[in-house]
C-alpha cells in the first residue's frame, strides 16, 4: 500500500489500552508513504512510551502544549497547518467529550481546534462506556460537525467484556484513512500534465533553460491521481521522483514536450500546462561543442518555440485546457488576456515578483481565472494548493 505517499498525518494517541496498537498503526502509515508526527495526551503516555513512537515515526513525539522547546521546533499552530489529516487512534470517551465541547486544554485538542485538515477518530473504549447515552450523543454530534469515525468494532475487549468499543485493526484504520484521501472526483478521467522546465540545446553540452523545479506540476499529478484520474505526466528535466500510479514521460525540449503531449492527447479529458516552456530555442544546434573565439560578443539566433497549451486548445476535440500565467504585475489582467488569446478554459495566475512563492518555493498563492470568475487562493503548500486546484478543475467537469 503506497496510497499515502507524501501525506502528512498527525497521529493523535489518547489514553486507552488500545494505544499499544498505535505502534503498529504508525508503522503501517509510514510504510504507506506518509510522514507521521505523533501527538500523545498525558494519559496515553501511561500506556505506551513516546520513545517507541519516536523510533517508529522517525520524528520527535509531541507531548505538551506549553513547552517552549517544542514550540521553538514545530509549534502547535505550525503542526495544525502541517497536517493533511489528524487521525486519533485510539480516541477515548473522554477525548471525544472534550473534542465535542471544543476544549483546548491539551496539545491534541488544541490541534483539532486549530487545523483545517480533516479530523478522523478511531474510538476505543469499554462497551458500556461506548453505549453510554452521553458518549453516543458526543459521537453523533462530532459526526454532524464533519468529524469522521472509523469503527469502533465489536468483539472481545481487554477488560474481558464483549461488545462494541474495540478499536479497529491498525490495517483497517490505515486503509480507511487512505481511502478518505481518494476522493474519486476525477474517477475515469484522463489527465495530461506538463511540468518542469524545458532545455533548448545550443550544442551537445550546452542549453538554455530556466529555474522551474516542477514541484507544482508534480503536486498536481499527485492530487489528480488521488482524485482517481489516470495521469500522464510529461516532464522536463527535474530532480523529483515519478509519482506512484502515473505514467511519466521524460522530455528535454519544447518540441519534444509538444510531441509527447500530442501523442497522449487522444481521449484526454483535462490538459494542465504547468511547464515553464522556453519561449525560444537556438535556431540551429551545433553538431560539435562550440569553441571560444576571439570575438568579445557572441550572437545567438533564436526562433520561437511552439506554444504547447495553445496548440492543444486549438485541437478540434480539445480537452478541458488549463494554463498557468506567471506575472510580475497586473496579474489578473494579463491572465485574462492569456486565457482568451490561448483559448483556455481556466488559467492559474501567480505573482512571481513575490519572493516567498513561485518557481523553487514549496509554497504558492495563486488566483484562478476562468471566463466568468476570479478566485484568489491564499498562500499554502504546493501540495495543498494542488488538491484545491484539482477540486476546482473537477467541479467544472461534466460527470
Ligand atoms: O505565454 P506564457 O509562457 O506566459 O504562458 C504560460 C502558459 O503557457 C503555461 O501554462 C505554459 O505551460 C504554457 N506554454 C506552453 N508552451 C509554450 C509557452 C508556454 O504550453 N511554448
* CATH domain class of the largest domain: Alpha Beta
What summary fits the major beta sheet? 8 strands, mixed
Distance between the termini: 28 Å
Question: What is the beta-strand fraction?
Answer: 15-25%
Structural class designation: alpha/beta
In the sheet with the most strands, the strands line up as: 12-11-8-13-16-17-18-19
CATH topology of the largest domain: Rossmann fold
Helix content: 25-40%
Going by CATH, the homologous superfamily of the largest domain would be CoaB-like
| Molecules bound to protein | cytidine-5'-monophosphate
Instruction: Give the number of helices.
Output: 14
CATH architecture of the largest domain: 3-Layer(aba) Sandwich
Number of strands: 19
Shape: elongated
What is the overall pLDDT average?
93
What this model shows, in words?
The protein contains 14 helices and 19 strands. The mean pLDDT is 93. A hairpin with a 5-residue loop joins strand 6 (153-156) and strand 7. The chain has helices spanning 21-31, 50-57, 68-74, 76-82, 93-101, 107-114, 127-131, 133-144, 170-181, 215-226, 254-263, 308-313, 331-341, 382-395, and strands at 8-13, 35-40, 85-91, 119-123, 148-149, 153-156, 162-166, 190-195, 200-201, 207-208, 230-235, 247-250, 270-273, 280-282, 302-304, 320-327, 346-351, 363-370, 374-381. 42% of the residues are buried. The protein has an 8-stranded mixed β-sheet, sandwiched between helices. The chain is of the alpha/beta class and 399 residues long. It folds into 2 domains: 2-179, Rossmann fold (3-Layer(aba) Sandwich), CATH 3.40.50.1950; 190-396, Rossmann fold (3-Layer(aba) Sandwich), CATH 3.40.50.10300. The structure holds cytidine-5'-monophosphate (C5P). Cytidine-5'-monophosphate is lined by residues 194, 254, 273, 275, 277, 279, 305, 307-309, 323-325, 338. Cytidine-5'-monophosphate binds at residues 194, 254, 273, 275, 277, 279, 305, 307-309, 323-325, 338.
